[in-house]
Input
Amino acid sequence: MGQQSQQQQLHWEGETPALPVGYCESCEEHMFPIRDFCPSCFSEDLSTRTVTEGRLETYSSIHIPKEGFPKPYTIGFVRITDDDIRLFSYITDPTDECEVGQTVYVQAESFGEYEETWAFGQEETNV
Output
């Protein structure tokens, strides 16, 4: 089975899937994955916030998938905060339904070796 660190695992806010993101109280920078200290100012004054949506910056279609993934599937870069955190992610929507700049939401997905992990898609929740 695939392993994700505790800081990268999917969290739930009620019925809404969310990603935990570190936040430095000193310099007000976000970080993902969560760290023990801020990589910008080295402060240890950190808190955790959650992100439920992002903006799709670019995407592509994969036609020769890894075992356990649908064929074809979409991947892309999603900006999850205003200060440059971008994640390379599985996108739950078909490529022909994606548009650069669209809002995408954290989704709970199971595929390949991961029983429950995060992805992004147009639907606000996946429950």
